[in-house]
Automatic annotation (TrEMBL):
Gene3D superfamilies referenced in this protein's UniProt entry, alphabetically: Zn peptidases
Source species: Bittarella massiliensis
Name of this chain's protein: Gamma-D-glutamyl-meso-diaminopimelate peptidase
Keyword check for Ligase: no
Active-site residues annotated for this sequence: E270
Family membership noted in the UniProt record: Belongs to the peptidase M14 family.
Family matches, as PANTHER family: PROTEASE FAMILY M14 CARBOXYPEPTIDASE A,B, SLL0236 PROTEIN
Keyword set includes Zinc: yes
Classification via PROSITE patterns: PEPTIDASE_M14
Keywords carried by this UniProt record: Hydrolase, Metalloprotease, Protease, Zinc
Domain Peptidase M14: 8-300
Molecular function as annotated in GO: metallocarboxypeptidase activity; zinc ion binding
Amino acid sequence: MTDLFYKEYPQYTTTMARFARIAIRYPAAKVFSIGRSWLGREIYAIGVGNLQSATCIVGGTHATEYYGVLGCFRFCEEVLESLESGTFPYDTPMGKAIGERGLLFIPCLNPDGLELWVGGVDTAGPLRTFVFAHCGGDLSHWQANARGVDLNHNFDAGFDIARRQVEQTGIYLPGPTKYGGPFPFSEPETRALADFCRLYAPRQVVALHSQGEEIYYQYGPRTPKQSALVAQMLASVGGYRVAQPGGTASHAGFKDWFIQETGRPGYTLEVGLGENPLPLDGFEGAYQKLGPMLAVLSIA
């Protein structure tokens, strides 16, 4: 699958067109909104199979980490194509697994942030002056949403610990990265994802980030015992390293909250190697490692 969509930076217009294409092209796909961003952009999900016992894959939490957006769409379309052809990728018996357990894809949790990074401050609309004041006109490393809140620091899992750690680095106010907001779930994007997880109760979640080719699976005493084995399986399939995030990345993330809230497995995959934002021409190589890992997770 090498069409133009996977060779360009994703934008809100192109991702919306892709959702529409998937909804029309694949009868097995259920495309629906889970909420809206601060600036009113829709946050869409794609469901395949049994949605009440699914693996939920989330991309685009950080604006510059677009490999997760493209990877989420790419794997979703591979699954949908395979359901029609009966030939499943990566030598996995996904057909039966999807019928029993299903997959939920949220390719871009942070559409406002992605637009800011790709399109500049004018895409912030009424928040243009606010964003400009907090980025100085440089959005090349903008990770946050339109309010300058880093969504992966806004979940209710060690939030106060994370805030203290971030403040020790000199960050107290909204900006490009790491500021976690005034309180947990202060942002519509994180509230939408939490409500979605409570409604659909996924059996496990996968957060796609960049970069480092690492796998994180632990958070506190409710980490399921089987998660360590699954993480090692993923590492053997994709060539990644099982690791534990440290410092300001060790609390308040989506995976952290899901494990603490439910006691079910949560994984973060740090896709690709290099410095964010990763180059477009590196996506295909990164996906060759990511695709098989997502296939394993879909049947795990």
